[in-house]
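Sorry to interrupt, but I need a hand with the structure work. Could you write out one complete protein record for me, on any chain you like? Just paste the record in under my message, thanks.

. . .
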Amino acid sequence: MKKLEAIIKPFKLEEVKGFGRQKGHTEIYRGSEYTVDFLPKVKVEVVMADDLIEKAVNVVVTAAKTGKIGDGKVFVLPVEHAVRIRTEEIGEKAV
């Protein structure tokens, strides 16, 4: 099993789920004023069978890509073990 973690721009996930907007703010550090602008991102995590991961990565990259700085990242991590609590199924059956 693999875990796909995607960090993308919120408007790319808009059709699936709503999102909040985070505004920047001003801070004072050592007597100087700085503007802090946060770029909103959404993190999506999905665990799936090994044979689905390549297609899932391609779908996320294709959907999230704008060609501009800040499009995001996709990470793929191994999942050693999974248990569905309700049925106690183990491994891919639990996913």
